[in-house]
From TrEMBL:
Residues passing through the membrane, by range: 24-44, 64-83, 248-273, 279-297
PANTHER family found in the cross-reference section: ATP-BINDING CASSETTE SUB-FAMILY B MEMBER 10, MITOCHONDRIAL (PTHR43394:SF1), ATP-DEPENDENT PERMEASE MDL1, MITOCHONDRIAL (PTHR43394)
Alphabetical list of InterPro entries matching this protein: AAA+_ATPase (IPR003593), ABC1_TM_dom (IPR011527), ABC1_TM_sf (IPR036640), ABC_transporter-like_ATP-bd (IPR003439), ABC_transporter-like_CS (IPR017871), P-loop_NTPase (IPR027417), Type_1_exporter (IPR039421)
Species of the source: Cyclobacterium plantarum
Residue ranges occupied by any ABC transmembrane type-1 domain in the UniProt entry: 26-308
Protein name: ABC transporter ATP-binding protein
ABC transporter domain segment(s): 342-576
Superkingdom, natural source: Bacteria
UniProt KW Transmembrane keyword: yes
Length: 580
């Protein structure tokens, strides 16, 4: 896939989020250095104590030594506190911004992306994958930088004290380093896989909860639990296989470390007896050795954190590299206020290559006219209206709005003049007022009231204790189909679009609701270029043109009376429906 040139790629995320806060990164580095260096005072104080202070019997010297150690220890505590504080806050801040960027990118992806993506998987991308990055920035990086720093300084000091002993120690440490590297190159794909399984399991759970009515209705709880269990078990197996590798590294470390200690006792003891080494040197050496090795031992922790973070980063980046729908380079025609003329010229479309579902459509919808799309299920009506909304781009041919090629039009300038009412229209969890105001949050109270009345929403909200302030549940489940439909119509009236798409907006309604809805739809359609897709042919008798679609082609067109008179496909559909 082609990389985006917009301001959303991960490289840009670092440029826009991390780089501006480089001051904190710098302060963090300075704090790491101070904290680690002050830690190193301890081994040297011990050496001084054994080699100088104790033999001299000087209590003043002892006091000064203790004071120095006290200062160093305090400094270390304060700097590491400040460091963790700064890093944790920075990491949280980064995560908040990164999540917002990922969300902003996802919702700007073309609608085709969502046809194939699972909601829960996307949620997991936004929340879990990004969390891995927090670990990286929050503690992983600081530990790694601090660890490498401590290890190197300690190593230099160890060599300075005794090159012989250092050499002996380095052999098992090198073996350990080699083992860990091998282990982590094996663990990385396991972590990548883990992110994937996690997303799948989360995705399934989200779907299960969203479709709970269907699941209960078909008594499928057990089956859903089995599927979920299988996913969780895969997750368990994945974690288990990485645990095997990490615990091997830990055990190898313990063993090699034990070996090194035994060696030091031998060589150190011998060198002290031969007076090649002082007691103080020996003491400082063992303490410094701890300083050098601790970070290497922590590698298994930091290593898995980093591996996890990188896996999350990879997956986030993959998503961020998908091109967004509103590519500003291609869509550079800003529409002024439009008349609302829509023209299709020899338009073809296929969801998959080699499988066209729209096969050469031509029509013109004049400003303010009503075009009805009629045809059997699967004939391509929704696909055509999707191209009017620019959710889908034709694979061949041209769609124009007021003469402009829609595929080059800036989507903001177009969609702000478009309205869509769907069969099972989406309502947010929130109040009825919020749901109606959603396309135009700053609309006046008068405009809102007018929309509410035109769509007969007040006819049922007046009976609610809280009226328009009534909260509707997730997907508006507490409203009836007809009430939800009226709410969706009020929303579209308030949005006041030039072009309007009604996709099966009147199907499955009871007779009483339908009356209200027919009237409110008529009000909504007045003066707008409207596309109506309807099962109920009675709703399209007034259309300016009726396009009869079969298998992606227009097989008949005309007004109701003309099509009835010609006794073709429309006549069949109409008389068939009249009979039932
Ligand atoms: P209608 O609205 O007339 O019932 P559609 O436009 O929804 O028909 O569908 C036209 C054809 O395209 C059908 O064969 C359908 O299976 C196919 N189709 C619809 N949506 C998708 C999609 N997201 N991916 C692949 N094929 C699709
Ligand atoms: Mg459809």
């Amino acid at each position: 896939m082609k990389k985006t040139t917009g301001n959303v790629s991960l490289k840009n995320v670092f440029k826009t989020i991390i780089w501006p806060r480089r001051k904190y990164v710098f302060i963090g580095l300075v704090l790491i250095i101070i904290s680690r260096l002050s830690g190193l005072v301890l081994p040297y104080a011990s050496k001084y104590l054994v080699d100088e202070v104790i033999p001299s019997n000087d209590f003043d010297l002892l006091k000064w030594l203790l004071l120095a150690v006290g200062v160093a220890v305090t400094l270390q505590a304060v700097t590491s506190y400040a460091l963790t504080q700064i890093l944790s806050v920075e990491a949280q801040n980064l995560i908040a911004k990164l999540r917002s960027q990922v969300q902003a990118h996802i919702i700007r992806l073309p609608i085709r992306f969502f046809d194939n993506a699972k909601t829960g998987e996307l949620v997991s991308r936004v929340m879990t994958d990004v969390e891995g990055v927090r670990n990286l920035v929050g503690t992983g990086l600081a530990q790694m930088v601090g660890g490498v720093l401590t290890s190197i300084i300690s190593l230099v000091l160890l060599i300075y004290i005794s090159p012989t002993m250092t050499l002996y120690v380095l052999v098992p440490v090198a073996i350990f380093g080699f083992i860990s590297l091998k282990a982590f190159s094996r663990i990385r794909p396991i972590f990548r896989e883990r992110g994937k399984i996690n997303a799948e399991v989360t995705g399934r759970l989200t779907e299960t909860l969203g479709g709970i009515r269907v699941i209960k209705g078909f008594n499928a709880e057990k089956q859903e639990t089995r599927i979920f269990e299988a996913g969780v078990h895969r997750l368990f197996l994945n974690v288990k296989s990485s645990l095997t590798a990490t615990s091997f590294v830990t055990s190898a470390a313990t063993f090699l470390l034990g070996l090194a200690s035994a060696g030091i006792m031998g060589i150190g003891g011998y060198m002290i007896m031969e007076e090649q080494l002082t007691f103080g040197d020996f003491l400082a050496f063992t303490l410094l050795l701890g300083f050098m090795i601790a970070p290497i031992l922590q590698m298994s922790n930091i290593g898995s954190q980093l591996t996890e973070a990188f896996a999350g980063l990879d997956r986030t980046e993959e998503l961020m590299n998908l091109p967004v729908e509103a590519d500003p380079a291609k869509r550079n025609i800003r529409l002024p206020e439009i008349e609302g003329s829509v023209v299709f010229q020899n338009v073809h479309f296929g969801y998959e290559a080699g499988n066209e579902v729209i096969k050469g459509i031509d029509f013109e919808a004049r400003p303010g006219s009503v075009t009805a799309l009629v045809g059997s299920s699967g004939s391509g009506k929704t696909t055509i209206s999707g191209m009017v909304a620019s959710f889908l781009n034709p694979t061949a041919g041209l769609v124009t709005i007021d003469g402009q090629d829609l595929s080059q039009v800036d989507l903001n300038s177009y969609r702000s003049q478009l309205g869509v009412v769907l069969q099972d229209d989406f309502l947010f969890e929130g109040t009825i007022r919020e749901n109606i105001l959603f396309p135009r949050p700053d609309a006046s109270e008068a405009a809102l009231q007018e929309a509410v009345e035109s769509a007969y929403v007040n006819q049922f909200t007046d009976q609610f204790e809280k009226g328009l302030e009534t909260v509707i549940g997730e997907r508006g489940i507490k409203l009836s189909g007809g009430q939800r439909q009226r709410l969706a119509i009020a929303r579209a009236i308030l949005a006041d679009p030039r072009i309007l798409i009604l996709d099966e907006a009147t199907s499955n309604l009871d007779a009483e609701s339908e009356n209200y809805i027919q009237t409110s739809l008529k009000r909504l359609m007045r003066g707008r270029t409207t596309f109506v897709i309807a099962h109920r042919l009675s709703t399209i008798r007034q259309a300016d043109q009726i396009l009869v679609i079969e298998k992606g082609k227009i097989v008949e067109r005309g007004r109701h009376e003309e099509l009835i008179a010609s006794e073709g496909r429309y006549y069949d559909l109409y008389t068939f429906q009249a009979r039932i």
